[in-house]
Amino acid sequence: MVDGGIVVQVTDGDTVVLDSGVVVRMIGTQAPKLPLGRDGFPTWPLAPEAKTALEALALHKPVRLGYGGEELDRYDRALAHVFVAGESGAVWAQLAMVEQGLARVYSFPDNRKCLDQLLVAEGRARAAKLGIWGNPYYSVRAADRPDEVLDRAGHYELVEGRVLQADQAGGRVYLNFGRFWKEDFTAVIEAPALRIFTAAGMDPLALEGALVRVRGWVDDRDGPRIEVTHPEQIEVLATR
């Protein structure tokens, strides 16, 4: 944990600027996005509310930064957990935003610390339909409705369903959620990700028959699919 300085600007619901000029991307979460000067980029529902909430929490306050993996992204933003000084102790900004339903868990294979706590908080907010979880834009998608998942290609989504078949071929694992792999939803785990699963003591082939929730970016490659790069993208809801 290191001193970060004072937050002088909140860019959106998951990014702050410090008095040193350092831009901090709050790792482990994704808040609704604002255009931020990008032509044609839509404002996601509740993006202004997320920014306002983070301003209320952190603006003009001292923070400490905690790193749990890669420390800089390709835009030279610091990748850190942000702890805001308060009268009753430090407030973990990521957790506070997730608890309010104004951010969701969003992780990377090289930055996976503290995700278990964030996932629990997200689950509670989702069950209570707080913030984004009361808006259909952020609904958990059903794996057995592949056309609806495909409509969200290019978006970060949560997709829930039962793994019909788990199979390994060509150095990768396919989790198939339907009988027609060229049409149905599939989660794909490439070889580098499989090494992370092995290091974590997890066998994705054991997920056959399990009810799971998969999170990630949806693409269209032989039907809707999500590439899984690390274990935390898959939540096991029931084994059979």
TrEMBL record:
Keyword annotations of the record: Endonuclease, Hydrolase, Nuclease
InterPro entries in alphabetical order: SNase_OB-fold_sf (IPR035437), Staphylococal_nuclease_OB-fold (IPR016071)
MF-aspect GO terms: endonuclease activity; hydrolase activity
Domain of life, per lineage: Bacteria
Domain TNase-like: 5-135
SUPFAM superfamilies: Staphylococcal nuclease
Name listed for the protein in its UniProt record: Nuclease (SNase domain protein)
Taxonomic source organism: Devosia limi DSM 17137
